[in-house]
Design brief:
The chain has helices spanning 2-41, 44-59, 62-74, 81-103, 139-145, 169-188, 203-211, 249-257, 291-309, 335-339, 347-353; strands spanning 113-117, 130-134, 154-159, 193-197, 216-221, 233-238, 241-247, 261-269, 272-277, 323-325, 330-332. By secondary structure, it is α/β, with parallel strands linked by helices. It has a domain at 119-160 and 198-354. Strands 1-9-8-2-5-3-4 form a 7-stranded mixed beta sheet, sandwiched between helices. The chain has a two-stranded antiparallel ribbon with strand order 6-7. Helix 2 crosses helix 4, helix 7 (203-211) packs across helix 8 (249-257) and helix 8 crosses helix 9 (291-309).
Length: 354
């Protein structure tokens, strides 16, 4: 009986949270719709002012309060964590304005100031196919990675499924944002791009066949949380999260297709877009499945360092179990968590709670 009571009580506690989440997403969908019109009919500077106002409205909600609290615990060395929280909350709205302008041909890549740091020559090597791995940074900056200037070869973009239904407000919000991003990618490439949604059992085979063709560039994200329990998953700490599960698909594609990986960290620096490229990661032997974890860790290490350096430009949840130490450039567990390890008998319980 007590177990049933606990379950009922837990459900009663979670219900207001779910209702608040739905209400928050409904507000954001409404704001995105207004910003779509602003992006179409107003000068860019004015539309961005409205985008900042939309983010400021969200910052007054309970979500804004929690975000400020998380930023204080995750970035204790930052000069102004409240400002950091505002930047993070405003980011999706500012990105939506720019992405909409690209998708509706109000803005083109040749209008941007783009600086490429360490651009890999392998992207222009005839006949060579390359896998570009990015993270979920500012969509305005990410858009430059898809431009012909950065990727002069035939492009394949791997994206999450664009949900066609409106099961709830969150699904509708994601569909609006991701749908505009896909339209912007097509516009940047004049429709000369293959967009592949990660859904269905045959998608891995399709991607592998595509990457084995000459002169192809495929862009994927490595930092998408992967549902626990699925095959080819890898669990590790990431950014502010003490534990998160990730797919090994990028490393596996590189290994089986025998094509190199180049990381790209795009970010905004004033009125410039900076594309920071890594040196190529050459593929492991085709049969070396154990290398997938090592290569995935290398990619995620690069992304989480960039999250620590510019958290306001990361569009996914940063997490608040760990904190960023700018002196060492690493993510750390709070001291209280690392002073004493749990007793052996309690270890499994502690891991479950975390």
């Amino acid at each position: 009986m007590s177990g049933e009571t606990t379950t009922l009580w837990d459900g009663m506690i979670r219900l207001p949270r779910r209702l608040f989440g739905q209400a928050s997403d409904i507000v954001r969908v409404f704001e995105l719709a207004l910003l779509y019109l602003a992006a179409l009919y107003l000068p860019k500077s004015w539309a961005l002012v409205f985008a900042d106002a939309a983010g400021s409205l969200i910052s007054l909600s309970p979500l804004g309060g929690r975000t400020r609290q998380w930023m204080r615990s995750t970035f204790p060395a930052a000069e102004d964590t409240d400002k950091l929280a505002r930047e993070w909350l405003r980011r999706p709205f500012r990105d939506h304005v720019v992405v909409t302008r690209i998708a509706e041909n109000r803005e083109t890549a040749d209008q941007w100031r783009v600086e490429q740091r360490n651009p890999p020559a392998i992207l222009r090597e005839p006949g060579k196919s390359v896998l570009i791995v990015i993270g979920h940074f500012s969509r305005q900056a990410v858009a430059a990675v898809f431009s012909p200037l950065a990727c002069p070869k035939k492009l394949v973009s791997v994206v999450a499924p664009v949900e066609q239904g409106t099961h709830d407000a969150r699904a509708l919000r994601i569909r609006v944002q991701l749908g505009e991003m896909v339209k912007a990618i097509r516009r940047l490439r004049n429709d000369d791009v293959e967009v592949v949604e990660v859904s269905g059992r045959s998608v891995a085979t399709r991607l592998l066949h595509s990457l084995r063709e000459p002169d192809k560039v495929m862009i994927i994200s490595a930092d998408v949380p992967w549902p626990k329990g699925r095959s080819a998953g890898h669990e590790r700490p990431f950014a502010g999260h003490s534990s998160q599960n990730f797919a090994l698909g990028g490393a596996r594609l590189s290994r089986l297709a025998q094509c190199p990986i180049v990381m790209c960290v795009p970010f905004l620096d004033g009125d410039r877009i900076v594309l920071e490229w890594s040196d190529p990661l050459m593929p492991a032997a085709a049969g070396d499945a154990d290398s997938d974890v090592r290569v995935t860790n290398e990619m995620l290490d690069t992304i989480e360092r960039a999250v620590g350096e510019r958290p306001g430009q990361y569009v996914l949840a940063v997490g608040h179990d760990r904190y960023w130490d700018p002196k060492t450039g690493t993510w750390q567990m709070p001291v209280a968590e690392t002073v004493a390890a749990p007793a052996p008998a309690k270890a499994a319980e502690a891991a479950t709670i975390v």
